[in-house]
Amino acid sequence: MAATTQDVTAVSAKGLSYRYGGGATVGTRAFSEPKLLDVNFHVAPGSRVLVAGANGAGKSTLLSILGGQKMVDREACTMLGKPVFHDSTLNADRTYCGDWWTTDFFHNLSVAELLGDRLHSPRVQELIDIMQINISWRINSISDGQRRRCQLLECLAIEKKVYVLDEITTDLDLFAREGLLEFLRRESEEKGATIFYATHIFDYLAHWATHIVFFSKAKIARCCAMSDLEEYHSLVAKGVQCPLYSLMKEWVLREYDQPMELDVLAGTTVVPEPSGPVLEAKDLSYSYVGGSPQLKNVSFAFGRGASIIVVGANGAGKTTLLSILGGKRMIRRGFAEVNGRDCFNDSVGSDIMYCGDWWRTKFMMNLTFGELLGEDVCQQSRTKHLAGVLQIDFSWKINAISDGQRRRCQLCQILSKPRPVYLMDEITSDLDLFAREGILAFLKAECEIRGATVFYCTHIFDHLEGWATHLLHLSQGQVVRCSPMEEVAEYKELVDGGDLTPLYSLVSKWVHNEYGTDAEHAKPWRKVNDSEDGRMPNLGLAGPMLTCSG
User: Fold this and answer.
1) Do domains 11-93+160-253 and 290-351+419-522 have the same CATH topology?
2) pLDDT computed for residue 539 by the predictor
3) Where are the domains of the chain?
């Protein structure tokens, strides 16, 4: 990517290579395999650079170097004419967001206290609305996803010349993701900021990025302007759905050996035909202590073998509904059932695989993942296939691996035992294209071959064209649409009209309409609660206590 504007270069790399290891002396710790090899590029001010590639290809290593987090030779990588590591004055012009906060060092701070005087700037106020952040949130007591949004707000609160952003949108809904990318577009177009953005989520990015850098095995395999990406434009000309995602999938899948052949019936049986609906809600309502209703008169019924995508804006009630179906919240009998049995009041655990809460490290007592599963489970062909798809090593110590690796281990563990029903809440946001495609293919086979039912909440749509059999659309706790995909007329119109991303376009329209038309409920995150000091115990899925159901 040669600089084109007055021959000015914002960021450049010349023969950049990097390995981990070495320790205090070369003999203390062996060097790793190269993470970057002979990387060369020049980026002009105002560029928006999409950094893509398989897991371990070198993306995050490059971004951490650009963020000044790793030492490299002065001449190997420069930013605004300064060496990225050795010149600390760059920190006034650069922001890096790639390592997520832990909660231990916030001492019960609220978001408002964290931001201080910056809180009242128009820039911060705009970002608060984009990411739907409540400034009274106590950082030590909110969810991981909320904390990541707060960190992103803090990183972007002050205008910089270069933004280095590593997978920042995984916890944002479609509305927030689009809003943030448009904010960054204005930063580049109006203020000349340069943006490096590494991601595995390609919704909305085909027309956002000005350049692309694709990494393969520590080297740059492709580096060009989006206008020169001929393979992408060829797919567009052919009318291929989700052309950017399709191209990235093709390139990423070349990097991997295919996992062992999938046989979902190995060691198990098909799900028997039920006498009624597999998943059913009947006029279900639910609210929390002191809060407005999360679900209002929700009714639906899904049968054996259905793969259901659940869509809606943040706060629509998707996660609450999922946790009720999973038996995690107390409701009165008769309002939600799995295979004819009440979700909370009857024992349905053997029928349900619920994935909505992620592991913490404190419970694992330094176990390896293989020890956690047990030798018999590790030897099952089903488990081996999942481990191959998710790129998991059974010798990993669960307390010592990254959050993303730990989530992959949890996903492998909960899918290793076949169930009739799978309830899954945004399970693919931390997966690269290879793992995401593999898990969705696995779940599709569970539906089509075993007759399992999958209920999947997500904000990511670039990989879901043709996957779902049914759609459930929630808005402000109510069911707006519930039907087979072939009966969603708006979706069919988009497909027939040649829209290249019909599912994304449809859900984007619905979510934007929801945020734009309901003035009474607009911006609920603006309701500040200064009375709480944040020290109330976090009861998770055991609370807060139910005040209304049915």
Assistant:
1) yes
2) 38
3) 11-93+160-253, 102-155, 290-351+419-522
pLDDT in tens, 338-361: 999 998 888 777 788 888 777 766
356 with 362: CB under 8 angstroms?
no
Q: What is the pLDDT of residue 356?
A: 77
pLDDT of residue 84: 96
What the block records as the tokens of 496 is 């027939």
Q: Which CATH number fits domain 290-351+419-522: 3.40.50.300, 2.40.50.140, 3.50.50.60, 3.90.550.10?
A: 3.40.50.300
Question: Rounded to whole angstroms, what are the CA distances from 105 to 10, 99, 114, 139, 150?
Answer: 34, 15, 12, 10, 14
| CA–CA gap between residue 330 and residue 320 (Å, rounded) | 11
Residue segments in the chain with a per-residue pLDDT below the cut of 70: 1-7, 22-29, 102-107, 289-291, 360-365, 516-522, 524, 529-550
DSSP 469-529: SEEEEEETTEEEEEEEGGG-HHHHHHHHTT-SSHHHHHHHHHHHHHHHH-STTS-GGG---
Query: Between 3.90.1150.10, 3.40.50.300, 2.60.120.10, 3.20.20.10, what CATH number should domain 11-93+160-253 receive?
Result: 3.40.50.300
Residue 109's pLDDT is: 86
From CA 508, how far away is CA 426, in angstroms rounded?
17
Question: Which residue stretches of 391-467 are H helix?
Answer: 403-415, 433-445
How far CA 6 is from CA of 1, 48, 453, in Å, comes to 14, 18, 58
pTM of the model: 0.86
Identify which of 37, 463, 517 has the alpha carbon closest to the alpha carbon of residue 245: 463
